Amino acid sequence: MLALCLVLACGPTRKATPDLDLKAMAEPLKDVKAGDSQVVDETVRLIQQKQHAAALANLTRLTANNPGNAALRVLRGYVLLELSNVTGSLEEARIAEESGSRSGYKCWFLAQVAFLAGDKPLCRREIGHLTGDPVYGPKVRRLSQDLEQQTK
User: Of 23, 24, 89, whose CA–CA distance to 52 is shortest?
Assistant: First the structure.
């Protein structure tokens, strides 16, 4: 279904959008209701083409049909950030983190959005969840350093 893997990695300095890793979300995206998988694929293409308003319209329908799908919430949060809606993105990232099974990626996404939103306690909490994680540990150390520099 989702042979696409899109990773928008943060460079040496924080950029306006966090990492988006569709590979990490592939399993939950397979769990969308029948008939929605083509819309998910179309939405991913729209995001890659930076057509975020159209992607948001699709994601609004998809999340209404699949309210507990954390991956759709992460995608919606990412698109909202691209459309400069940090508050909406943070809400979607929180819903995603509370939905479905535990996933290091959901915590990582929420940590990054919390950082961008200026929610330092939430960012620190999510960093704490990932400190020993083999995949996200090095990334959260950099984010933690950025957070501490921001505090100074």
Answer: 89
The C-alpha atoms of residue 138 and residue 16 are separated, in whole angstroms, by: 20
CA angle 27, 32, 38 (to 5 degrees): 100
Which residues, 6 or more positions from 51, have their beta carbon under 8 angstroms from its beta carbon?
Answer: none
Tens of each residue's pLDDT in the chain, 152 residues: 332 333 333 333 345 568 788 899 998 898 999 899 999 999 999 999 999 999 999 999 999 999 999 999 999 999 999 999 999 999 999 999 998 778 899 999 999 999 999 999 999 999 999 988 999 999 999 999 999 888 76
Both tokens of residue 118? 């200026």
Angle subtended at Cα 88 by Cα 86 and Cα 90, rounded to the nearest 5 degrees: 70
Catalogue all structural domains in the chain, each as residue range(s) with its CATH number.
Answer: 22-151 (1.25.40.10)
Per-position DSSP letters for 79-111, written without gaps between them: HHHHTT-HHHHHHHHHHHHHSSS--HHHHHHHH
pTM: predicted TM-score of the whole model, two decimal places: 0.86
